[in-house]
Amino acid sequence: MSEASEHARMIAVTLILEGISAADPVKAVKNFLKLDGDTLVLGDWTRIPLKGKVIVVGSGKASGGMALAVEEMLGNRITGGVVSIPEELVEKYSGSLSRVKVVGATHPRASQKSVEAGQRIVESVRGLSGEDVVIALFSGGGSALAELPVEGVGIDEIGELSIKLMKAGANIVELNTVRKHLSRLKGGWLAKHAYPATLVALMISDVVGDRMDIIASGPTVPDPTTYHDAVNIVKKYGLWEEVPQSIKKILEDGIAGKIPETPKPGDPVFEKVHNRIIASNIISLNAMASKAREMGYNTVILTSMLEGEAREAGKILAAIAKEVLKTGNPVPPPAVILAGGETTVTVRGRGTGGRNQELALSAAIALKGEQRIAIASAGSDGRDGPTDVAGAVVDGYTYEKAQKLGLSPEAYLENNDSYSFFQKAGGHIKTGYTGTNVNDLVVIVVEKENPWE
Ligand SMILES: Nc1ncnc2c1ncn2[C@@H]1O[C@H](COP(=O)(O)OP(=O)(O)OP(=O)(O)O)[C@@H](O)[C@H]1O
Ligand SMILES: O=C(O)[C@H](O)CO
Ligand SMILES: [Mg+2]
């Protein structure tokens, strides 16, 4: 292994950790919200006087951390509220939160616990006055962790349809379009319940492209989608015949105008709503880019919307790294090229792995024999697929090293066994569960000849 590759690996992992740290829920809230006397000041200088009640609600995997930061800032100004987080995290936060209640619910499939959480959230914001302020905290997993089904539909029916749509390959925009139309919490309904209070909704985005109405199914965001869209999505995946009668009736009544649509853009209830994204893939990439520039690297952010098959993305990113080294395009070494998003893996083999490890393994094959390059890819939640690592880092020597150990990188890739590959060849990035999620982060580092100079 050359010193330059070794250095490149170290920089790549350092930058991944920087990106994760920028998405830390406590930090993200504290960076964005300030208290100036009796006024809440948002990151864009919007000022919100705290004259009446202050209610904190929310749901999502990062919402415990977000609530903690709000409570540390506002303390006993908070008059009540509840956040719903994964059951396994309740113990971590319930001890440190005293004004905001923490309840546990289930994900990725909603359950009766999610309904109890949804009811409590809605009850907390009902009957408020125009002087009151609601702070809503949403993050990934929020859709499953809280729900208030529309009357006549059971949570198990919603849970089952959601899982069927996911398995059929529906994306998060499609899935949440359906969820919104079976809910009295999602799709802007929470804003309607909270009106006429002022509503500040802070979101950590796990949605590629950051559509606010899709994050946790947009409880505080005007819904541009319709009952028609929901029906078309269910039909697109061939599931209409399997939909229970109760759900069919709601969707059909919705189309016929017999029951109300979700609150739409232009609805006056949104006049008192401030929706803001406080952590996202691009916010993390920007933090990583600043750090890389500080360390003297020529830095480019390629995209925060990387999608597609992980092994193809790995090949393309390796090609970009080789171009930097060979011709100095788009920037000359020492260079850091950043990307983020969420790739997918069509699992055909029987191995263990995740999309980040698979991307890295594919890049390692394409980088065979290259010097001075490293590529790291990791999930910001610290869990790459069903494994206990965040991702992996590779360089131009990974291939040779594996061969010396008698491993065939191609065979491991073929078997979707990237986790086992890196267990043997080295290169896992282990962060533990990070308590946030802004999707995946990818770093390419290309060193000049002697990076230690
Ligand atoms: N052997 C494997 N190799 C590569 N990828 C795999 C393998 N097994 C599963 N995966 C991928 O892991 C993904 C599931 O990972 P994970 O549970 O982290 O989901 P997620 O989309 O990140 O959800 P969340 O946002 O809740 O974390 C699936 O998209 C699947 O393609
Ligand atoms: O909960 C959800 O809807 C997804 O994680 C997207 O935010
Ligand atoms: Mg994940």
UniProtKB/TrEMBL annotation:
Q: Keywords on this record?
A: ATP-binding, Kinase, Nucleotide-binding, Transferase
Pfam entry (one): MOFRL
Among InterPro entries, the record links this protein to:
GK-like_C_sf, GK_N_sf, MOFRL, MOFRL_assoc_dom, MOFRL_protein
One MF term in the entry's GO annotations: ATP binding
Family affiliation: Belongs to the glycerate kinase type-1 family.
**Oligomer status and interactors:** Homodimer.
Can you name this protein? glycerate 2-kinase
What is the native source organism of this protein? Thermofilum adornatum
